[in-house]
Amino acid sequence: MKTTTNKIWAVAIITVLFLVNAGAQTNWDVTVTNFSFTPASLTIDQGDVVTWNNTLGTHNVNGTTATFSNNPASFGNSLQNAPWQYSFTFDIAGEYSYQCDQHPGSMQGTITVNTATSITGDNDKDGIKIYPSPVREYLFIEFNDNRATTYSSIQIFDLTGQMVFSQPIGSNDKLTINMGHLPPSLYFYRLQNTNGSNDTGKVLKK
C-alpha cells in the first residue's frame, strides 16, 4: 500500500512539474536558406528548444556526435527539400556544433547551452539550494537557517514513478546523494515536511 501511495505521489509530482515547466522553456528559431543558418550562433539555457525552418533549398541539420565528437548529445535530420521544420530540446549543457551535409564548407552553426548551477523555484527562496544541474555523480542539498530541521525525509523518483532513493533528514545542514549509478534521465525529488506538507522539484541526471 505504501509503495502504491508513493507512486501516486510521484506521478502527481511529475504531472505538476511538467505543466509548470512546459511554459518555462524558451523557443529559438533558426532560418535555413541557401548557404546559411540565421543566426549561425546561439546562446541558450538548458531545456530550451531550437527550431530550424528551411525556407529555400535542399539542406539538413547535422549535429551528431559521429560528425562532431565533442557535442554533448546528437541531434539532426536528413537532407530534404524546402519547406521543412526540425526542433530539438537541449537538455544537456555544453558547446554544440552542427552543419548542413550538402554544404559543409559554408553552412555551419554553433549552440552554447548554459549550465544551471542550481534548480530554481520556490524552494530557493525558502532557504534550499540543490546543485549541480545536471548532476553526474553527487547531488548536494544545502539548507539555510537550519531549514533541515523542518524536513523529515527526502525521496527521489524516476519518470515511471518508481522511488530510486529515500533517506531520513536529521539536523544536518547539507545532504550528499550519490546518483552516479542511475541512468541519465529526469528525476523528481520530494522533501517531506514535518508539518505534513511536501516540497517538490526536478533533477536532471547527465
Automatic annotation (TrEMBL):
<dbReference type="Pfam" id="PF18962">
    <property type="entry name" value="Por_Secre_tail"/>
</dbReference>
<dbReference type="InterPro" id="IPR008972">
    <property type="entry name" value="Cupredoxin"/>
</dbReference>
<protein>
    <submittedName>
        <fullName>T9SS type A sorting domain-containing protein</fullName>
    </submittedName>
</protein>
<dbReference type="Pfam" id="PF00127">
    <property type="entry name" value="Copper-bind"/>
</dbReference>
<feature type="domain" description="Blue (type 1) copper">
    <location>
        <begin position="28"/>
        <end position="114"/>
    </location>
</feature>
<dbReference type="InterPro" id="IPR000923">
    <property type="entry name" value="BlueCu_1"/>
</dbReference>
<feature type="domain" description="Secretion system C-terminal sorting">
    <location>
        <begin position="130"/>
        <end position="198"/>
    </location>
</feature>
<keyword id="KW-0186">Copper</keyword>
<keyword id="KW-0479">Metal-binding</keyword>
<dbReference type="InterPro" id="IPR026444">
    <property type="entry name" value="Secre_tail"/>
</dbReference>
<keyword id="KW-0732">Signal</keyword>
<dbReference type="InterPro" id="IPR052721">
    <property type="entry name" value="ET_Amicyanin"/>
</dbReference>
<feature type="signal peptide">
    <location>
        <begin position="1"/>
        <end position="24"/>
    </location>
</feature>
